[in-house]
Specification:
Elements lengths: L1 E4 L10 E4 L9 E11 L1 H8 L13 E9 L11 E4 L9 E5 L3 E3 L6 H21 L7 E4 L5 H12 L3 E6 L2 H9 L4 E4 L6 H8 L5 E6 L6 H6 L1 E9 L13 H5 L4 E3 L10 H16 L7 E6 L3 H9 L6 E5 L1
Parallel strand pairs: 8-9, 8-11, 9-10, 11-12, 12-13, 14-15
Antiparallel strand pairs: 1-2, 3-4, 3-6, 3-15, 4-5, 5-7
The structure holds NADPH dihydro-nicotinamide-adenine-dinucleotide phosphate.
NADPH dihydro-nicotinamide-adenine-dinucleotide phosphate (NDP) binds next to α1, α2, α3 and α9.
Length: 323
């Protein structure tokens, strides 16, 4: 099969197209023909060695496709079934072996590309608005990088729960996309001098109930300063780099605020929770609540370009690799 391999950590140039032996499904596993693999920021952290990896490896955690064969003991799936997954390394390939417990069924109403676009990023947006901070009608909510893969979905889900979303973006085109996803206000955080002051102005001086911050280093201080008394800063990514250590006293000074640093994999920890969360997200796609924007499609061999584009802020919505 054709696949992308990395033999050493580094920049996008370590993503090398190669030929590898077809995987065989072990006990409890599915062998899947990958229709589309998802490109996520976590793939770049793994490639760079920020999240240590055993090398060589085939990167990519996410995809959707059709089951070709099942391993011993698999009863929930059969050859021909459509499945998606988001926690299986090896997805930048034509074929991947996925544990059945990590796969979810894809409803007929959801196309393969949408199934990928909605899964890792959609379930992330879902747990952020339902579990981390349950967004309520009338909440003022700050969403950074709102035209990105997670950002567009988060903006839609928060808006659907009755929040007023203040979105940050770096270009006018991205601002239009954020508005299209439901954002009431858009701030270009590369141009505004005092981001927290701008957010406070938009909330009549009160501040936001929750700031969803996936940008990290460059936005953290402004996110904290944008919160209302007892508001919550949800730091869930580091697109601009990791945040330096924080003195807890700063949470007190900001008004008895809360800080959390959640991750998806703790919110799909059991097969039951994974299946239920994926079904909720795919249900929202099927009934039109959630529109999944595929921003960019690349041939599998161009994984390097996909990573370069994602890390240079050139992309919007979801990025896919097509084997
Ligand atoms: P995006 O499509 O959102 O791309 C990242 C965006 O971040 C860019 O488009 C850019 O938007 C913004 N950004 C701001 N500063 C920088 C910078 N210095 N370099 C690069 N980008 C920058 O990516 P994803 O949707 O895949 O992921 C978004 C974030 O969510 C990532 O931080 C990721 O790690 C996190 N995440 C966390 C999960 C979790 O479980 N905790 C799960 C999934 C994703 P703009 O140009 O508008 O500034």
């Amino acid at each position: 099969m054709r696949a992308i391999q990395i033999t050493e950590s580094g920049g996008p140039d370590v993503l090398t197209p190669t030929e590898l032996a077809d995987p065989t499904p072990g006990p409890g596993e599915l062998l899947v023909e990958v229709a589309a693999a998802g490109v996520n920021f976590i793939d770049t952290y793994q490639r760079e060695g920020i999240y240590p990896m055993t090398l060589p490896c085939v990167p990519g955690m996410e995809g959707a496709g059709r089951v070709r064969a099942v391993g011993e003991g698999v009863t929930a799936y059969a050859a021909g079934d459509r499945v998606a997954w988001c926690e299986q390394l090896g997805s930048y390939a034509e074929l991947v072996a996925v544990p059945a417990a990590k796969a979810v069924p894809v409803p007929d109403a959801v196309a393969d590309e949408t199934a990928v676009g909605a899964l890792l990023q959609g379930m992330t947006a879902h747990f952020l608005v339902t579990d981390t901070y349950p967004v309520r009608e009338g909440d003022d909510v700050l969403v950074h990088a709102a035209a990105g893969g997670v950002g567009l979905l988060l903006t839609q889900l928060a808006t659907a729960r009755g929040a007023r979303v203040i979105a940050t973006v770096s270009t006018a085109e991205k601002g239009d996309l954020a508005r299209g996803a439901g954002a009431a206000d858009v701030v270009d955080y590369t141009e505004v001098e005092d981001l927290a002051a701008a957010v406070r102005d938009l909330t009549g001086g009160t501040g936001v109930a929750v700031a969803y911050d996936s940008v990290g280093r460059t936005t953290f201080d402004a996110s904290l300063a944008s919160l209302r008394t007892r508001g919550m800063l949800v730091l869930f990514g580091a697109a601009s780099g990791p945040v330096p250590p924080v003195d807890p006293q700063r949470l007190n000074q900001a008004g008895s605020t809360y800080l959390t640093r959640p991750k998806l994999f703790d919110h799909v920890a059991s097969p039951e929770e994974l299946t239920a969360r994926a079904a909720a997200v795919y249900g929202a796609v099927a009934d039109g609540t959630l529109d999944v924007r595929i921003g960019h499609r690349y041939p599998l061999a161009e994984a390097r370009t996909a990573h370069e584009d994602l890390q240079s802020r050139r992309t919007t919505g979801k990025l896919l690799l097509l084997p």
